[in-house]
Amino acid sequence: MNPRLGVHEDDLEIAAAIGRYAAAELAPRAAELDEQARSATCHVRGLSELGVMGMNLPERWGGAGISPTALVLSIAEIARSCAATSSMIGAHYLATDSILIGADDDLRAQYLPRAARGDILGAFALTEPRAGSNPADMSTWAHREGDQYHLSGVKHFISNAGEADFIVVYAKTDPQAGSRGISAFVVDKDTPGLQVSQPERLMGIRGGHAFEVALDCRVPASRRLGEEGSGFRTAMKVLDNSRLDVAATSLGIAQAALDAAVSWARERLIGGQPLADKQGIQWMLADMKLRLEAAWALTLQATHKRGLGERFSMESAMAKLYASEAVGFITDRALQIHGGYGYTRDMPLERYARDARILRIYEGSSEIQRTIIARQMLAE
Q1: What does the pLDDT read at residue 84?
Q2: Beta strands in 228-307 (DSSP E)
Q3: I need a surface site. Which of 147, 160, 239, 351 has the fewest CB within 10 A?
C-alpha cells in the first residue's frame, strides 16, 4: 500500500495487516467463490479472529475501535483480493451500524458484541420490489399489538439474509406519515413467519448472496430500534457510512485491475517490444491511475469528516458516486489492455468488470447520489 496524504501511519499499518491476510487467504479462493456462487460467509471465522467483523464498532460494544480511515483502507484491501467478501462484510456492517446508531444500550448489548466476534451475522432489510431508490415508498408495515409488533411485507435484494442470524427490518408504523412513519426492528432468523428465498442469480459478486425476504411475523416491542418513526433517520445515517464502504470496495477492485493491467503491459510483447512501450497504452494507464487517485481523494475527504463527527452526507455521496463510476472505467480499460485474454474466464479481468457493475446501483444508484449532492448544494 502506498502512503497517502493525511493518513496516519497506524491506519496504514492496520490496513497493511488486513491486506496481507486477504492476499494469503481470500484471493486464492475468490475465483472459486465466483465460479460456484459459494457464499463468502465461509471466511467469517478467519476474519473474526482479525477483528474485521467488528471494525465498524467502538470498543465499548466489542468492536476494534479503529478510525474511519483505517476502516476504509482495510475494506479496500479486502475488496482488492475478493469483492464478494467485502460485500458480505458491508451487509453485516449495515445491520450492526443500524443497531449502534438507532437502538438503546440493552439492544446493543444483546447483539453487537456477538456480531463483532463473528458469532452472529447480520443483514439489513430496507429495499423492496417497488421501493428501492425511495425507501419512503415502502409498503412493509408494522402494527402494534400489545407488547409486540406484527410485521408484514416483502424485502428484496437483501444481502446475507439467507445466512444471517438476525435481520434489521425497516417498516412503516404510521403509513400516513411518509418517511417519518418508518421504524426499524431486529428480527431473529428463527422467528416464525420469516421466510427467505433461495439466493438470487447474480451477474457479479456472486459470493455475496442476496435474497428476497417475506415477513408475516411478530416481534417483541423491545426489538424496535429507538422511538417509533425514527427508522428513516437511522437508515440515512447508516447509508452515509455504507456509501464509504462501497467507495472502498470500488477502490479495491480498481487497484486490482490496475495492477493487473500494469503487469500485463510490462510482460506482453508485441513485435518483440513490451506493450507498455506503446503511447496509447501509456495514456490508458495514466487515465486509470488519475481516476483511482481522484476517487481516493474524495473518499478520504469524506472519511476525515466522518472521523471529526461532522455531517458528511454530501461527501459520502460524492465518494461513492465517483469511485463506483471510476472502477467501471478502470476495469473496462484493464480488460481492453489484456485484449482477448482479458475476456476469458481464465483471467480475473472479466470478474473484476462484473463485480464492479453493481457498485453504481446499490446503496443508492448513481442517479440518487447526484440528487443528494445537488439538493445539499442548493440548500446551502
Answers
A1: 98
A2: 269-270, 273-274
A3: 147
